[in-house]
Design a protein that fits this description.
This protein is 47% helix and 18% strand. Strands 10, 11, 12, 13, 14, 15 and 16 form a 7-stranded mixed β-sheet that branches. A 3-stranded mixed β-sheet has the order 8-17-9. It has a two-stranded antiparallel sheet with strand order 1-2. The N terminus is likely disordered.
């Protein structure tokens, strides 16, 4: 019987499932060959000439233009792994393709796909149970060395393999210092609390860990101080520019002298807003939009640091860490304008430092939660982007290890142990599922 393939063409005597599996397996071979030997990076060039140098499976699969639906599932599998776990993106694709290949062989031998699926599901449940009962070890009993080794294992297949000792220590220290305890008393280690900045120049070994949050920004005026201790920070999400009337509002002026008064009143609106923020006790002002030069004058006179055009993500994160609130408008219920001092965040020190060719603003000693910043150094943009991906993977691994408080041995020993266990388990079954479980064991 002829079947219609996924591509919409009629194929004679070939099953759609077989076509799908074949296409997926060819993608798996691409992944295996593209990742190549450990530590060997690939250079990808897209349609418009942008270059990506990477050894990260998820990044490579993201760049591929895959149109086949079944093969697309494998690409999305690596993206989900990257989002949920952070590392192991290549392993899941290769394992999934191997399971598909062996499943395809079983289907060719007249075993119904439902039996294969139920066998695989049973093997999965048994595997998880066996790992938890026999293979997982509590991190508490192993000490900090286990965390360092977990980070080094994550970096072993990456560009950072040679300097894995240096970066593993940095990653573990950063994650240990962003520990937070939620209302249920459970310890959490948010990866977002570790901010990664990339700066050209120097070698990778010159990278450093800063206790605090850093943003790529400078003081908006040279007359402002470079450092402020016991900072009170205002987070402003509106323009501190000359006030303009809304669109469609017309003002009819009969007396030319009144024009100057209107212009002055427009300036005074912004002046009063700046004064309100300063009088509330703020000595550092972070604004997500523009600040006019005449408005900066008031901040310089008050000895404040004002920073304009701060990215909104950074603004929200610093506000959360310092216990402040982002203010969208100064208007209150009565229709008047006022700035509530409760909206101010606080930290021990705000200072401007030069790293390489860039100026960074560092916020140290946050009031609410600790934040860490890793400043990466490297020769060029491609190298730094790959180091950032490797660091992110390692951070995710340490987060998972600390939150689950369990770790397993590396070097493929878990896969071998499961393979032996599932092979024995398959022999105890009398149903057709035992064939699928045996294949699952071989795939591992």
């Amino acid at each position: 019987m002829s079947q219609v393939s996924i591509f919409g063409q009629r194929e004679q005597g070939q099953d759609v499932r077989t076509q799908n599996i074949t296409a997926v397996l060819s993608l798996s071979n691409i992944v295996k060959t593209s990742l190549g030997p450990q530590g060997l990076d690939k250079m990808l060039v897209d349609d418009i000439g942008d270059v990506t140098i990477t050894n990260d499976g998820a990044t490579i699969l993201k760049q591929l233009e895959v149109t086949h639906p079944a093969a697309k599932v494998l690409c999305e599998l690596s993206q989900i792994q990257d989002r949920e776990v952070g590392d192991g993106t290549t392993s899941v694709v290769i394992l999934a393709a191997e399971l598909l290949r062996r499943g395809n062989e079983l289907v060719k031998n007249n075993i119904h796909p439902t039996s294969v699926m139920s066998g695989y599901r049973l093997a999965l449940k048994e595997s998880v149970k066996y790992i938890q009962s026999h293979l997982a070890v509590k991190v508490d009993s192993l000490g900090r060395e286990a965390l360092i080794n977990a980070a080094k294992t994550s970096m072993s297949s990456k560009l950072l393999n040679a300097e894995s000792d240096f970066f593993a220590e940095m990653v573990v220290k950063a994650m240990e210092q962003v520990k937070t305890v939620n209302h249920t008393g459970q310890a959490k280690y948010p990866v977002k609390a570790v901010h990664i900045l990339k700066t050209h120049g120097s070698s990778a070994k010159q990278s450093m860990l800063v206790d605090g949050y850093a943003i790529e920004a400078t003081r908006s005026a040279q007359g402002m101080p470079k450092s402020i201790a016991n900072a009170k920070i205002a987070f402003v999400d509106f323009n501190l520019n000359k006030y303009r009337l809304a669109m469609g509002v017309q003002v009819l002026v009969h007396d030319p002298e009144a024009l100057d008064k209107i212009r002055q009143a427009e300036l005074d609106v912004c002046k009063n807003r700046c004064k309100m923020i300063i009088e509330a006790g703020a000595n550092v002002i972070l604004c997500s939009r523009g600040i006019d030069d005449f408005a900066l004058k008031y901040f310089v006179e008050a000895g404040c640091i004002a920073i304009r055009r701060v990215p909104k993500n950074d603004l929200k994160r610093i506000a959360n860490n310092t216990g402040g609130k982002v203010v969208v408008s100064l208007a209150d219920i009565e229709g008047e304008e006022s700035f509530d001092p409760k909206c101010l965040g606080s930290c021990e020190r705000v200072n401007e430092k030069r790293v390489g060719d860039w100026e960074y603003m560092f916020f140290e000693g946050m009031a609410e939660t600790r934040a860490q910043t890793i400043v990466l150094r490297g020769a060029n943009e491609f190298f730094l982007a790959e180091v950032e991906r490797s660091m992110h993977d390692a951070l995710c691994v340490i987060k998972r290890v600390l939150e689950s408080n369990s770790i397993v041995a590396g070097g493929g020993s878990v896969e071998v142990a499961l393979s032996v266990y599932l092979d024995k388990f398959a022999r105890t079954l009398g149903s057709r599922e035992q064939l699928a479980i045996a294949e699952f064991s071989e795939a591992l």
